[in-house]
């Protein structure tokens, strides 16, 4: 990949593993192509016809199609259109850049309204807890390099060096450095103090406060209870004397 990038003079930017949110544009493009192949297989049509229609369709958030941006005109397809719609018309690049920036700012504004969780920044040498994607267990490690925006290289106790995103990491304050392989996996008491909220695959769960007059589960209840043993609170009703 590095040799190919050097020959064509472009920069390769990688993303954190198991964090598809950081490469949403690529994931969306792959999904569009997969849907094209599925529809072609189901309908028995040529893939080039689907590509032609896709290149003539306006890009999301912009009034121009990919063919207009690249060739400065629409491509002729099976859809009947007036001949003047196929004439060349150069699109101003500055206008395209302005529209794309406005559309991206709008998306960021709507996302920030519902995203209340603030990301934590880590420094080299910090002791952290990293969530294992497969086992869902929090494991201890050390930050050895910062790779980019919310992306870090972690060295675990067993010697593995992996790249992880900050959404899977939590700060861990320990009195002494970790030097035992048995400390690689957290105990239940240590893991209970860690916020296990992950943005891309879990929902925030909040505990509702109990009513002030509700008795504890361990104490006996003289009132009516549910089939699970929880005391039932009778609703207040307006009645006439």
Automatic annotation (TrEMBL):
It comes from the Eukaryota. Residues 195-241 are annotated as: Disordered. This is Uncharacterized protein LOC103514992. Coiled coil: none annotated. SUPFAM superfamilies: Ribonuclease H-like (SSF53098). Signal peptide: none annotated. InterPro entries: Retrovirus_Pol_polyprotein (IPR050951), RNaseH-like_sf (IPR012337), RNaseH_sf (IPR036397). One of its GO terms (molecular function) is nucleic acid binding. Residues 197-206 have a biased composition (Acidic residues). The gene is LOC103514992.
């Amino acid at each position: 990949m590095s040799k190919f990038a050097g020959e064509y003079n472009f920069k390769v930017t990688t993303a954190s593993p198991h964090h598809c949110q950081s490469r949403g544009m690529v994931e969306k493009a792959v999904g569009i192509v997969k849907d094209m192949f599925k529809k072609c297989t189901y309908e028995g049509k040529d893939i080039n016809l689907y590509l032609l229609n896709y290149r003539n369709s306006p890009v999301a958030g912009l009034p121009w199609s990919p063919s207009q941006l690249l060739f400065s005109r629409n491509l002729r397809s099976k859809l009947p259109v007036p001949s003047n719609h196929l004439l060349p018309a150069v699109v101003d690049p500055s206008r395209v850049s302005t529209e794309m920036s406005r559309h991206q700012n709008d998306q960021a504004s709507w996302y920030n309204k519902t995203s209340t969780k603030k990301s934590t920044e880590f420094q080299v040498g910090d002791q952290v807890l990293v969530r294992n994607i497969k086992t869902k267990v929090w494991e201890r490690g050390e930050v050895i390099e910062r790779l980019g925006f919310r992306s870090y290289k972690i060295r675990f106790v067993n010697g593995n060096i992996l790249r992880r995103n900050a959404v899977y990491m939590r700060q861990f304050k320990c009195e002494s450095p970790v030097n035992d392989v048995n400390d690689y996996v957290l105990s239940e008491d240590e893991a209970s103090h860690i916020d296990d909220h992950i943005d891309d695959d879990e929902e925030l769960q909040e505990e509702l406060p109990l009513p002030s007059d509700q008795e504890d589960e361990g104490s006996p209840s003289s009132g009516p209870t549910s089939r699970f043993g929880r005391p039932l609170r009778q609703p207040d009703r307006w009645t006439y004397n």
